[in-house]
Design goal:
Radius of gyration: 23 Å
Structural class: alpha/beta
Distance between the termini: 55 Å
Order of helices and strands: HHHHEEHEHEHHEHEHEHEEHHHHH
Number of helices: 16
Helix content: 25-40%
Largest sheet: 7 strands, mixed
Number of strands: 9
Strand order of the largest sheet: 5-4-3-6-7-9-8
Length: 405
């Protein structure tokens, strides 16, 4: 199976139908297959609460999920990817949209730009590996007028790539908006982009287990190279390895908006002053001290998902009880706490003992988490999640070596 086939995430049936639709358009030069597609195959599309449509994923771990939250597909774009940004619309804006999918995130960015800008320019570079996924963006009803602009850019590129044939999108792309559409592995795209280019990077893969290659330290190091000093990366995930990966790549991290999920996403920036809110305290502790905070690695930016997942599993195994506290029963979050549950306490303290930590209330335990005394939900350039995580990592190493005093 090619990387493109394994990486795309739309439902296999709809994938085949979309390819067939555009093949018919090419052979007949008739617009009916595209114009009638949504009504004919409406069951494959999922209406979300704000009136915008999502689409089902292919089966993953015996489950089929939608690509967006049921709370609202286009609302998710505005809430998670636009609102956290601190754009200065007096200046030109450049955005990199990774896993652009149906085009909603780029469309939300265009809407916000048109609303707030006067004489500036907007550049959006959209990246998606699958032609059919982009084509699906042409087939869904536009949730906002600006989606028609995105559709036009997508259609132009699909025609250039000999996938689409007819120019059916009538929207005009404003002169001060430039949209580049890449149809390739995002890992290859980013390596060809110029340093210090982007004010924002939207990172929207389906999941870390589906596409760990788009959450690796090495991929984030490319982000660090191409993003401006005041730029922000936004992603929906709150997963520990992704947050740890950003830190290892040279970013500060903060809490992203909560929308359609119980937990907030993640924001990352070279400049800590661009990030307003700390991660939850227990998230910081687990990232810093537990093997769950081992990031994904892809040294050549060319490994398969399976290899990346296997390598991380092995690295976690090797780190456990050596450089990291076992993640079993969320052991690190009990540091500093009295424990009433005797059975759980025994398990926790067995894990801690292997890292030279006698108990949850030992001097060693309090030494490791001392920086959490200064925890503040509102973070600044000094007192922030990243600095606390790095401080706890250093303190754990000292305790493990027995020279923490």
């Amino acid at each position: 199976m090619s990387y493109e086939n394994s990486a795309r995430i739309i439902n296999d049936d709809i994938f085949d139908l979309i390819n067939e639709c555009f093949a018919q358009e090419k052979s007949s030069r008739n617009n009916e297959s595209r114009l009638n597609f949504f009504d004919t195959y409406n069951d494959y599309f999922v209406l979300t609460e704000d009136g915008s449509y999502s689409i089902n994923s292919k089966e993953i771990n015996h489950k089929v999920e939608t690509l967006h939250t049921s709370t609202g597909a286009i609302s998710e774009s505005f809430e998670k990817f636009i609102k956290p940004m601190k754009f200065n619309y007096d200046n030109d804006i450049a955005i990199l949209d990774i896993c652009a999918g149906l085009g909603y995130n780029s469309s939300a960015a265009i809407a916000d730009f048109i609303k707030n800008s006067s004489n500036s320019n907007l550049q959006i570079d959209m990246v998606e590996i699958s032609k059919a996924t982009y084509a699906c963006g042409l087939l869904v009803p536009s949730p906002i007028p600006e989606h028609d602009i995105t559709k036009k850019a997508i259609e132009d590129e699909l025609i250039k790539q000999d996938y689409a044939t007819l120019s059916l999108e009538k929207a005009e792309i404003p002169e001060n908006i430039n949209i580049n559409v890449f149809i390739e592995d995002a890992r290859q795209t980013v390596q060809g982009l110029e340093d210090d280019t982007y004010d924002a990077i939207f990172l929207d893969p389906f999941s870390q287990n589906m596409a760990p290659e788009l959450f690796s330290v090495e991929f984030f190091k490319q982000f660090r190279r191409i993003i401006k000093d005041d730029g922000i990366v936004a992603t929906y995930t709150s997963a520990a390895p992704i947050r740890a990966g950003f830190i290892e790549a040279g970013f500060y991290i903060g809490l992203g908006p909560i929308f359609g999920r119980k937990q907030g996403g993640t924001l990352a920036s070279p400049n800590p002053e661009m990030l307003d809110y700390s991660l939850p305290k227990n998230d910081e502790i687990r990232i810093a001290l537990s093997d769950v905070g081992i990031p994904f690695r892809d040294p050549g930016l060319n490994n398969s998902s399976e290899v990346i997942l296997e390598n991380r599993t092995e690295e976690r195994h090797n780190a456990r009880h050596n450089t990291k506290i076992s993640s079993a029963v969320k052991t690190p979050i009990f540091l500093g706490d009295e424990m009433d549950d005797e059975k759980l306490k025994r398990r926790v303290e067995r894990n801690l003992a292997k890292m030279n930590i006698p108990s949850t209330t030992s001097e060693e335990a309090f030494f490791i988490i001392e920086c959490e005394k200064n925890y503040c939900e509102k973070q600044d350039s000094e007192n922030n999640s990243t600095n606390r995580i790095l401080d706890m990592e250093k303190r754990l190493k000292k305790v493990k070596k027995g020279n923490y005093v």
